[in-house]
Amino acid sequence: TEPGAREEVVQQASMLGTKGPAMNYIPTSSKVLWSISEVDPGQSKSITFTVPSSVGVYPYVCTFPGHGVVMYGAMYVNES
Prior knowledge:
Blueprint: H1 6-14, E1 56-61, E2 72-77
Antiparallel strand pairs: 1-2
């Protein structure tokens, strides 16, 4: 997500309700920078993206209902 937007995105995901599965629990938000769909047991997925040009702490989070409060981390972008 954009810096500082993790909790907002988790909240938006929780409000998807019955639309959640069809949207892979990923809310439509400009604050979601990249995403992948759910990964089932035995599956693997990868994502390729360009690191933001702005220095900052970019949170990543699981938006599956209930997971976002414990399944998250951060990507730190520094000057090169």
